[in-house]
Each structure stands twice: as structure tokens, then as C-alpha cells.
Write a structure and sequence with these properties.
heterodimer, A: 389 residues, alpha+beta, Rossmann fold, 2 domains, six-stranded mixed sheet, five-stranded antiparallel sheet, 10 helices, 26% helix, 29% strand, B: 291 residues, mainly alpha, MetI-like fold, disordered C terminus
């Protein structure tokens, strides 16, 4: 039993800044839990609280059924992988990996056996006598993993362990980390700002914003059923199109700028609360892949700003005469932000994105009808940002 | 045909572009700094007459070991006695106390200031900086009265120099630059604060330790004012006081012996510097690779 359970955990710094608000979270034994959020959302603080590197202001943290609030980091029996690996520069790879075992006064034979085994798993055997300074980024990352696994800890904590690696290596290390975690089978808390990493690695993903837990669910559920507009915008790349819209008084037609969408009954059946929004403003959300060039039913007319041809699909940036809902501090990966800036620089209103079939006969400046898959549309309360179900 | 002159011309151009003026200034400055050292060394192998023969003494015709020989005998026979070995022992012990004690005390103080969060930390840091700029001469007299009970001991010669604001500040800035994750990793590995300091911080702080060791050794080895104030007995005289007394107590000063004594005073400093400098450079190189 080595569950990590956070119950009503908060962190307030001496200067009064509240970094974490009443978090309830359970990482089950063997589960790979990813905590994701924009920079400064408190995800690293949360991890450091679990590690014992930050004190817990209120609430209870238990690991393996034992409350560990007052335990030192060493007593918590966790292993942590840092963003900059934090390898001891003056020790060889073998000594780095063995250090924690030596502190626990394990017999030499046992230490050697475990170091050897970890080195084999991580293909580090030939580097055991080298110092970290001579290794590449990926190898250092492996040493950091090695240091974590030899301890046979109750849980793994990882603080953006891949963010110092180049894109290709990152993808490779993602699967290596997952494989190791499956093999060792301990609860893992993994922090990242990269939502793609979060979605691809986590058994479950926790989305954090300004120290408040937004949603904790499987990647698919976060994508399909975001609880609020922040999660909707944060999860998915390119992110969901969000537009201010208003229901007419009988509550069946949605006005988006000068355009209208008739909401089918199936949607109301899915989301009974939507009826209550007749005559009110909401935020209408639609994912880029739920807008198509061919199809039937409701359409939105858009003017193409620019097109990115990815080979397998076209990313069409288009403008509408409707107001976009902008999520503050959405963060996301840097490429995404740059992409967004680039898009907004071209024309102010080209904020919407559709993913369409490759080789479609469209060009910038065209005005095109985009078919909306209404059953897959999202609706949010414009005042609270909460999803309407 | 044309190739040769062109390449020759190019080479000449390249030579012309060298900053000859700067080289000339540097050369003059180098001579200014190194000539006294050269004179000291050469003079220590000359007879007093040669030594005092102005610049001609710098180009000796014959060298002798007589000065070193007489220094190795018991000397100061007129009024007091002491041996070279004795003076060396005193200077070495005092330096060992200052360098060893200083590295221990000041590194811990610097580490505490850099890493521990406590009330008054900033004030304390400010105090350290203020202390750096106060010259020793300004506090020598109060110190004399405070420590007068310890006069004529080895300890008193070292005591005021063990805790050093400058060393603390040097350690402080160095520790600030060390990534705190190293200590956090050690914490998670189960190391306590002392073990972390000894096994993780210390081995990575060799450049700082080497710099402080060099600077404090040079300072204490050649210190003169404080031991002059605190010692009246030849068996606690450090080298620097002994050389001063040699000058004062000879009716006609033997400059050859003086020069030899000077060399003997400087050699340990040079050796110490060279040993630690090598360490220093190695540590800096390993830091650079760490990336």
C-alpha cells in the first residue's frame, strides 16, 4: 500500500501569498498521475509539499496510509527527479545512484547489486565510472531515474523531468519513464506544464490553476468533458475555439455574432441544464476537429486567415464576426503560444482554428462554410465559466 | 611570382595589427613588478657589499650560500636567541589555525547566510559587508586591550583573523550560485544538514575554499602589526617579526642575510599559492563541464 493522499491541503507563504488551496487528491498505488497547469499555478509547490521540501500550511498528507506532514524528506521514503536532474557533480554515476542506499547503511553487496541492476535497466552500465558532467542530457536524465529506482521508494515524484531535453529525446524519454514506472509499479506524481506530455503519460491528469484543482480525470475525459472553460482551453492542441454566444428567447437558436446555429434536441437531451439559458449569454466551444468542410447540418461561415499544411491535415486559421472568449493565464506549450501570437498578428480576428482534410481546395481569403458537429460542441456559463450539463 | 610577395605582405599586415604599444606598456609594468623579486632572490646569494652595489648587484659576478648558512645557525646572539626553525614553526602554527579555523567557521557562516531563512538575515549580511570595509588597523587598539591577557601566545596571533567578514562574503556569494536542488536531492536521499554540507556542498565548493585559503594564508603569513603588538618573547615570534628584529638589532645591517630571510619568508607563500591555485583551476574546469 503506497497511495499518496492529499486531504484539504493548502499552502500559504509567510508573506500571505496562498499558493495552494484546499487540494484533495489521491494517487493510487501504481498510478501515474500528472499534474499540469500554466507556469506559476502551484504545481511544483504541490509536488515539493509532498516531497517535504515545503511545509504544509493546513490539511493532511498521507503516504502508504501514514500521515507524513511532519516527516523529513528522507523519512517519507520517496524518490524525486528534478528538472535539472540535481546529480552530484563530484560523484561518479555509480556513486550518484548508490548515495541514498549508502546513507541507509545497506550492505555493500546489496548496494552493488541494485546499482548494477538499475544501470542495466537504464543502459548506463558503461557510464558507471563517469561523472555526470561528461554525460549527455538524456544520459543524465537516466542517471536521475536510476537514483530514483534503486531506492525502491514508496512513490516517485518528478518535477518537469523532460523539459531540459530536445523534442525528439523528450518523446523517447516519455516512453522510457512510463516503462520504468510500470515495471516498478509505484505511485507516481509527475508535474509538467506541457499538456501533450500530460495527456500522453498520465493514467489520470490533474489540471491546476492558481493553486486550485480544476479537474482530475483521464486524459480522454478531460478532453471530452472539461468541467470549465479553463480546462477546455488548456487541454488539446490546437485548443478549443471559444466564442461568446447568446440564446434567443425560446432557447433553441444560438446567435454567434451575426450567425445562427440551431441546437438539436439531442444536445438538450445531453445537457438538460442548457434550457435554463434561454435569452442568456453563454460561451460556445468547439474543437478544431469538430469543424469540417464537408457534411450536413449547421454551419458557421468563416474567412480564412492562413493555412498550415501538416501533410496529414490542414490547420485552418479563420475569423468570425463574433467575439472570442479569451482565457487568461492559459499558458500551454511555448509553440502553441507562439503559434497563437503569430496568428493574432496576421489579423486581429483570426483566432479560430479548424482541422480539415489535407489537399482541400481552399486558400487564404476564402470565405468558407464550416460544418459544426453539434453533439460535440461545448457550452459554458459565461459568468462562472462552468460547463453546462 | 606574385604569390610570394602577397603572402609576405599579408603576414606583415598581420604583424602590424598587433598592439605593440600595449605590449610595451605591459613589458615595462612586468619589469617593475618582477624586478624587486628578482633582486631579492639574487641579493640573497650575494655578499653584503655586492647587494648594496646598486643596480650592478642585480647582475652578480659570483654567488654564495653564506647568507643562508648564517641564518641556519643560531642567531640574534647579541640580545635574544631564536632559531629559524622556531620562527617557521610559530608562523606555520598560526597560519594553520587561521586558515583551517577560518575555512571551517567562515564557510559555515557563509552557507547559513546563503541558505537558511531566519529573522535578521539581511541585517546580518549587511553587517558582514560593513565589516569587510573596516581596516584592521582601526580595531587593533581595542583588540589589544580585549586580548591583552593572551599576550605572548600563539592563539592570540590567530584569534582576530579566524572569523573574517571577507571570507564569509566570498563563501556567501559562492553558495548562492550553487543550485539548491543539490541539497534538496540530498535531503530526499536522507542526508541531514551536516552530512549534506560535508558530502555534497564542500566537494563542490573547492574553488571558494581554495580562494579563501590562499587569501587568508597570505594575509596571516605576512602580518606584522598584530604580532608586533602582542609578542615580546622570541619563542612566539613569527617570521615577519624576526626579520624586523634582525634589521633593528644588527649594528650594521647585513643586507645579504636580510634578503635571504626575505626569500625564506616568501617561498612558503609561493608554494601555498601554487598548490591551491592548481586545485582552484581544476575545480573551475569541472564546474564549466557541468553545464
Amino acid at each position: 500500500m503506497s497511495e499518496i493522499v492529499l486531504h484539504n491541503v493548502s499552502k500559504t507563504y509567510d508573506n500571505g501569498y496562498a499558493a495552494i488551496h484546499n487540494i484533495d487528491l489521491t494517487v493510487k498505488e501504481g498510478e501515474f498521475m500528472v499534474v499540469v497547469g500554466p507556469s506559476g499555478c502551484g504545481k511544483s509547490t504541490l509536488l515539493r509539499m509532498v516531497a517535504g521540501l515545503e511545509t504544509i500550511t493546513s490539511g493532511e498528507l498521507s503516504i502508504g496510509g501514514q500521515v507524513v506532514n511532519d516527516f523529513t524528506p528522507g523519512e517519507r521514503d520517496l524518490a524525486m527527479v528534478f528538472q535539472n536532474y540535481a546529480l552530484y557533480p563530484h560523484m561518479t554515476v555509480a556513486k550518484n545512484i548508490a548515495y541514498s542506499l549508502k546513507l541507509r547503511k545497506l550492505p555493500k553487496d546489496e548496494i552493488n547489486r541494485r546499482v548494477k541492476e538499475a544501470a542495466e535497466i537504464l543502459s548506463l552500465t558503461e557510464y558507471l565510472d563517469q561523472r555526470p558532467g561528461r554525460l549527455s542530457g538524456g544520459q543524465r536524465q537516466r542517471v536521475a531515474m536510476g537514483r530514483a529506482i534503486v531506492r525502491e521508494p514508496k512513490a516517485f515524484l518528478m518535477d518537469e523531468p523532460l523539459s531540459n531535453l530536445d523534442a525528439k529525446l523528450r518523446v523517447q524519454m516519455r516512453s522510457e519513464i512510463l516503462q520504468i514506472q510500470r515495471r516498478v509499479g509505484v505511485a507516481t506524481l509527475y508535474v509538467t506544464h506541457d499538456q501533450v506530455e500530460a495527456m500522453t503519460m498520465g493514467d489520470r491528469v490533474t489540471v491546476l490553476r492558481a493553486g486550485v484543482l480544476q479537474q482530475c480525470d483521464t486524459a480522454q475525459n478531460l478532453y471530452d468533458k472539461p468541467v470549465n472553460v479553463f480546462v477546455a482551453a488548456f487541454v488539446g492542441s490546437p485548443s478549443m475555439n471559444l466564442l461568446y454566444a447568446k440564446f434567443d428567447n425560446d432557447g433553441t437558436t444560438l446567435h454567434i455574432g451575426s450567425q445562427r446555429l440551431t441546437i438539436p434536441h439531442s444536445v438538450f437531451a445531453q445537457r438538460p441544464s442548457l434550457k435554463a439559458f434561454a435569452g442568456r449569454e453563454i460561451v460556445f466551444g468547439i474543437r478544431p476537429e469538430d469543424l469540417t468542410l464537408e457534411g450536413s447540418g449547421e454551419t458557421l461561415q468563416g474567412r480564412i486567415g492562413h493555412i498550415e499544411a501538416l501533410g496529414s491535415e490542414l490547420i485552418v486559421h479563420f475569423g468570425l464576426d463574433a467575439r472570442n472568449y479569451v482565457v487568461e493565464d492559459k499558458g500551454g506549450s511555448t509553440e502553441e503560444v507562439e503559434e497563437m501570437l503569430e496568428a493574432t498578428a496576421l489579423t486581429e480576428h483570426v483566432r479560430n482554428v479548424a482541422r480539415v482534410a489535407p489537399r482541400s481546395q481552399i486558400k487564404p481569403g476564402d470565405s468558407i462554410p464550416l460544418h459544426v458537429t453539434m453533439e460535440r460542441a461545448h457550452f459554458f456559463d459565461a459568468s462562472t465559466g462552468k460547463s453546462i450539463w | 611570382m606574385t604569390l610570394v610577395p602577397t603572402s609576405r605582405k599579408r603576414r606583415r599586415d598581420r604583424l602590424d595589427r598587433r598592439p605593440w604599444g600595449v605590449y610595451a606598456i605591459l613589458l615595462v609594468m612586468m619589469l617593475l613588478f618582477t624586478f624587486p623579486v628578482y633582486y631579492l632572490i639574487v641579493g640573497s646569494f650575494e655578499t653584503p657589499a655586492q647587494t648594496l652595489d646598486g643596480l650592478r648587484g642585480a647582475a652578480p659576478t659570483s654567488l654564495t650560500l653564506a647568507n643562508y648558512h648564517s641564518l641556519s645557525q643560531v642567531f640574534f646572539s647579541q640580545t635574544i636567541t631564536g632559531t629559524l626553525k622556531g620562527f617557521y614553526t610559530v608562523s606555520s602554527l598560526v597560519s594553520l589555525l587561521v586558515v583551517g579555523g577560518g575555512l571551517f567557521v567562515n564557510s559555515l557562516a557563509g552557507y547559513g547566510l546563503a541558505r537558511l531563512q531566519f529573522k535578521g538575515r539581511r541585517t546580518l549580511l549587511l553587517l558582514v559587508i560593513v565589516l569587510v570595509i573596516i581596516p584592521f588597523e582601526a580595531i587593533a587598539v581595542p583588540l589589544y586591550y580585549m586580548l591583552s591577557g593572551l599576550r605572548n601566545t600563539l592563539v592570540v596571533q590567530a584569534l582576530p583573523f579566524i572569523g573574517s567578514a571577507f571570507s564569509i562574503y566570498l563563501f556567501y556569494t559562492f553558495f548562492l550560485a550553487l543550485p539548491p536542488q543539490l541539497e534538496e536531492a540530498a535531503k530526499i536521499d536522507g542526508a541531514g544538514p551536516w552530512r549534506t554540507f560535508a558530502q555534497i556542498i564542500l566537494p563542490n565548493a573547492k574553488p571558494a575554499f581554495a580562494s579563501v585559503a590562499i587569501l587568508s594564508f597570505i594575509q596571516i603569513w605576512s602580518s606584522y602589526l598584530w604580532p608586533l603588538m602582542m609578542t615580546q618573547s622570541p619563542n612566539v615570534y613569527p617570521l615577519s617579526i624576526a626579520i624586523g628584529n634582525l634589521l633593528r638589532q644588527q649594528s650594521t645591517p647585513n643586507y645579504g642575510e636580510m634578503f635571504a630571510f626575505g626569500v625564506l619568508l616568501v617561498v612558503p607563500m609561493a608554494v601555498f599559492f601554487i598548490v591551491f591555485q592548481r586545485w582552484f583551476i581544476r575545480s573551475v574546469a569541472s564546474l564549466a563541464v557541468k553545464g
